[in-house]
């Protein structure tokens, strides 16, 4: 299990916000410190799962010293946030597709906020599930 630095920020009349220096743009909040920590773990795990699904690299955790050396981070209180996901290693593959199919994949993926790799991984998982469901249905009908 990896641990990343989360920075808790609290402004008057606001919830406890949490940001992650190793993952710019990933933020969450909680109504109290315990809730903020729980939300931070969930947000970070979901973000990392998305990176893995999209075939993106997962950064190594920065040290506390490196995070706090950045003047922009000094107004936050550092906490360790555990990643509760079994991130699987992404493997690069070479696939040959007709050009028009690749263009259609890219257009669809972009329109839905996905990368090509993320779309292909989702499509493959969907097809595998569908074929398994079809196979199990056929097995049940034959044994009935």
From TrEMBL:
<dbReference type="Pfam" id="PF15919">
    <property type="entry name" value="HicB_lk_antitox"/>
</dbReference>
<protein>
    <submittedName>
        <fullName>RNase H-like HicB family nuclease/putative DNA-binding protein</fullName>
    </submittedName>
</protein>
<dbReference type="InterPro" id="IPR013321">
    <property type="entry name" value="Arc_rbn_hlx_hlx"/>
</dbReference>
<dbReference type="InterPro" id="IPR031807">
    <property type="entry name" value="HicB-like"/>
</dbReference>
<feature type="domain" description="HicB-like antitoxin of toxin-antitoxin system">
    <location>
        <begin position="4"/>
        <end position="124"/>
    </location>
</feature>
<dbReference type="InterPro" id="IPR035069">
    <property type="entry name" value="TTHA1013/TTHA0281-like"/>
</dbReference>
<dbReference type="InterPro" id="IPR010985">
    <property type="entry name" value="Ribbon_hlx_hlx"/>
</dbReference>
């Amino acid at each position: 299990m990896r641990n990343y630095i989360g920075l808790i920020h609290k402004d008057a009349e606001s919830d406890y916000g949490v940001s992650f220096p190793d993952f710019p743009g990933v933020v969450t909040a909680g109504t109290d410190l315990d809730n903020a920590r729980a939300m931070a773990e969930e947000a970070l795990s979901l973000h990392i799962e998305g990176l893995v699904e999209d075939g993106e690299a997962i950064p190594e955790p920065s040290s506390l010293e490196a995070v706090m050396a950045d003047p922009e981070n000094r107004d936050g209180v550092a906490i360790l946030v555990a990643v509760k996901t079994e991130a699987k290693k992404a493997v690069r593959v070479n696939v040959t597709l007709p050009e028009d199919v690749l263009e259609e994949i890219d257009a669809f993926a972009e329109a839905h906020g996905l990368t090509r790799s993320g779309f292909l991984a989702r499509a493959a998982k969907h097809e595998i599930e569908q074929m398994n469901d079809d196979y199990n249905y056929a097995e049940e009908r034959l044994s009935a």
